[in-house]
Amino acid sequence: MEDEQEPPLQPRTQIQGRVLFLTICAAGIGGTFQFGYNLSIINAPTVRQNSVGEKAYPVEADWHLCPQHIQEFTNETWWVRTGWPLPDHLVLLVWSLIVSLYPLGGLLGALLAGPFAIMLGRKKSLLVNNIFVVAAAILFGSSRRAGSFEMIMLGRLLMGISAGVSMNIQPMYLGESAPKELRGTVAMTSAIFTALGIVMGQVVSLRELLGGPQAWPLLLASCLVPGVLQLASLPLLPESPRYLLIDCGDRATCLAALQRLRGTTEVMVELAELEEERAACRGRRARRPWELFKDGTFRRQVISLVVLGSAMELCGNDSIYAYASSVFREAGVPEDKVQYAIVGTGCCELLTAFISCVVIERVGRRVLLMGGYSLMTCWGSVFTAALCLQSSFPWMPYLAMSCIFAFILSFGIGPAGVTGILATELFDQTARPAAYMVCGALMWTMLFLVWLGFPFLMEGLSHFFYVPFLGVCVCGAIYTGFFLPETKGKTFLEISEELHRLNFPGQSQGPMWRSPEVIRSTEL
User: Fold this and answer.
1) What phi and psi values does residue 429 have, to the nearest 5 degrees?
2) What angle do CA 32, 319, 53 make, to 5 degrees?
3) How far, in Å, are 81, 140, 210, 221 from residue 207 at the CA level?
């Protein structure tokens, strides 16, 4: 009789797998996809010539016309208002503010993500976050008709806030909703949607589509489409079961969410694990960001988060993107085809994000991080040598172009996705929102500093501009190899116990777990 009852469970399990897949898509399309999309549609820098060696070398990409159109709109708007053209240096200043307000908004959003996740929950935070998207889209779409470049600046700030919130809450939501054997794979989808957003932004921004002089308001306002898709789909999907039980104490709703995400055969086993984790958090309120730096029980976790989070932003991947168009020209790519070669770089990162998603639960987090940073060190060194010798050998530009693709592939297979999992797996339920606030604030600050300092680095170091980034890649590989614990296939409780032993090597006993009674871990 038991054999006759087992087959009907398989289609039911497949249905539950589809619910998890739809949850990933609904969270990703309005989450990290928005970050990658808005990063690529406007952040391609404008043309500026810089003397490198004996050649006039275009330091920054000009394949993207949106910056040029927005600067022309700024100048025209100022002319209509005052009767005088805006000086070139002020036009550049306005453009710099438009670009830099995005990471500034991201920093503000990262600081809001923790309180949002605690007070509203993971799913509702992602839904409420679309208020910023809708407001920004209205500002972008109306800016030209209203003759106001200030509306573009405010819209960029709001989109940055939205990106800061979603980039922290999406991996938190998915990591808490996934089973332990798929937690790494599910969390890696955040990197997939980031890369997908970058590629989609690069494609939509082509001259033949929305990259023309009349269509740029539509290009900026197109961020509304992913937001609407998330608003239409995410309400139909379950909240994080871990949040429902541990933070809210709602066992019935947690059980229903688990049944939708897993199927009835495995729910009771996982529910028992959640009850154990709930017991571990009994009587503890939600941590504040500054408390993580003071508490010795989080010493290894915080150091790992700061070191590897900084390494991901300072490894030079964004700089490689900025330098790509000039290298493609030196390799003989026609001017009108450079934009398609740039799209190819985004496709490389998307490809490796898919590969990492497939192999992460087989090889582990440490292997992908160490391998990624080691390969980036290798290709970055060859890239530097190729730039220095490009005037001596005619085939060196082709080698430099190959190194760009190889470097982006190496970044995508390791640091791009694995780093985002750290805050989910290394911190317990009470400290996770605060950890994401720290991680998000660090990421956006580093991103702003890289964008600010890269032109000066190029001017000062010329062909050797990538040498400082090589040092960061080496440090990232060394730290991962010696200090980062492997979390593959472990429950959150097992990870917490291992980290407790690492933080307090003199103690043979792990943290004292309490019985599962009433818990409210989300008090601010």
Assistant:
1) -60, -35
2) 165
3) 30, 19, 6, 17
